[in-house]
Design a protein that fits this description.
This protein is α+β, with helices and mostly antiparallel strands. The protein is 21% helix and 26% strand.
Length: 245
């Protein structure tokens, strides 16, 4: 969070309710600073970032202020959308985060039947830096295939000449690392629609399961279970770009 905001506006932007509802929380003694309840008059004071870190709402640490980023272990069956029917990745987050301002968005997407590492942020500059083709942030997927690899896939994907049906230009070079006859890691630097599935389909194979385990040099933590999320540290954010530096 840069600069400062009035306390009632800050908490409203963070999803704790309307400004009137936030003032009600303050009036009820539910908002504290260093353990002391704030007054209604305090609801109008400007809050600097260091003060926000020392605040509590209903006894719990204040949610991250605007400028936050988080990683989520996306499970199968949920969609990276705000509006589509069925379970959404946003349903896995605290409900009040849906009304934060600025809003939280996924950094790119994983389709409904793909699991793994998904980043979310309310920082538009960070989002665009990660997804921008100029930064070539690599993303690694583990693919389970219907048929054994032929041994030619690696050279084809690395060539930078593979054209997918309906696309106007060939794919950028990608790196294939076989794990078993029917499993492989594939690292790509683009984010085209259903890209990994379409790459294998172009070579006559079918992806039966797909899981993303790495973005840049940031690995999906082993202790982050499907459906769980955690805030990203500055070191985590740096790791996203570490593989390109």
């Amino acid at each position: 969070m840069s600069g400062s905001l009035r306390l009632d506006r800050l908490l409203a932007n963070m999803g704790y309710g309307s400004r009137k509802e936030v003032q009600g929380l303050v009036r009820a003694g539910a908002v504290t600073l260093d353990g002391a309840a704030l007054s209604v008059t305090d609801a109008k004071i400007a809050i600097q970032p260091d003060l926000a870190q020392r605040m509590r709402v209903q006894g719990r640490p204040l949610d991250p202020p605007p400028g936050m980023a988080l990683m989520l272990h996306k499970p199968l069956g949920v969609t990276c959308s705000h509006k589509e029917a069925g379970p959404l990745v946003y349903d896995l987050l605290p409900s009040r985060w849906r009304i934060r301002e600025p809003g939280i968005s996924t950094v790119g997407r994983l389709d409904k039947e793909t699991s793994g590492l998904l980043l979310l942020t309310d920082d538009g500059a960070l989002l665009h830096r990660i997804i921008s083709p100029r930064h070539h942030v690599p993303k690694r997927y583990r693919a389970t295939l219907a048929r054994p690899l032929t041994g030619e896939e690696g050279a084809t994907f690395a060539s930078g000449t593979l054209m997918l049906e309906g696309d106007a230009k060939p794919l950028a070079s990608a790196v294939l690392e076989p794990i078993s006859p029917t499993e492989a890691f594939l690292t790509v630097t683009e984010g085209r629609y259903h890209m990994v599935r379409r790459m294998f389909a172009a070579l006559g194979n079918h992806v039966e399961a797909l899981h993303r385990d790495r973005i840049g040099a940031l690995d999906l933590p082993e202790d982050l279970a499907p459906g769980e999320h955690r805030l990203m540290t500055p070191a985590d954010v740096a790791a996203v770009f570490g593989a390109d530096q």
